[in-house]
Amino acid sequence: MSQNLTIVEHPLVQHKLTLMRDKTCSTSDFRRLLREISQFLAYEITRELPMTTRSIDTPLCPMDAPVLAGKKLALVSILRAGNGLLDGILELVPGARVGFVGLYRDEETLKPVEYYNKLPKGLEDRLTIVVDPMLATGNSSAAAIDMVKAAGATNIRFLCLLAAPEGVARMSEAHPDVPVVTAALDERLNEKGYILPGLGDAGDRMFGTK
Ligand code: URA
Question: What 8-state DSSP symbol labels residue 180?
Fold first, then answer.
C-alpha cells in the first residue's frame, strides 16, 4: 500500500494481537500484551540504527565489538494511549530521551489542538520514534509529527499497534519522510473514527476507564 509502511507479521506478534482484540481480554492482560508487542515493533524500527565498534577485552582476547553509534534515541508518546508503548521500548533502549505531546479534537473544526508539549532538547541529533497504538484518521499523528519537526527532529519514525488505510494515507501525504511500523493494517474506520475490526478504544482498554 505504501512503501513507507512495515507490517510486523511475526507469529508471536499476531497471536498476542488477537488476544488483545478479544473483548474479553482483561485490562492487565491488555497492558502486558501491549508492552510485549511494543518490543517486537521496536526491534523492527531500530533495525537500521548506525553502528560503530569499540575496543574491549573479553576474558580471552581483545576485540573490536559492535556498539550503537552516535546519540541515543528519543521516544515521543502521544497522550494518553502512547504511554502504553513506552515502558517496553525503554527496557530495550534505556538511554532514550522521552517526550510527550497532548492533542484534543476541536469539536467545531475537527482539527487537533495542542494542549501539552514537552519534548527533549537535541532532537536534531537523535532518531525520534513517535508512538501511539492506533493510527486511525492520522490527524493527531500528523500533528504530533509537525510538533517534533518544529522542535528540530529530522529523522523520525512512527510506531503503532494497529493502522487503518485512511491513517496510513494521511501520514504518507503529510509526512512522506516518516516510515510507519505497525502490527496490522485493518480494514477501515467506522463513522466514529474507530478502526475496524480494531480493538476498541486503546486508552480505555489499557487504563480500565470504561
Ligand atoms: N483510537 C482508539 O483508541 N481506537 C480506535 O479504533 C481509533 C482511535
Answer: E
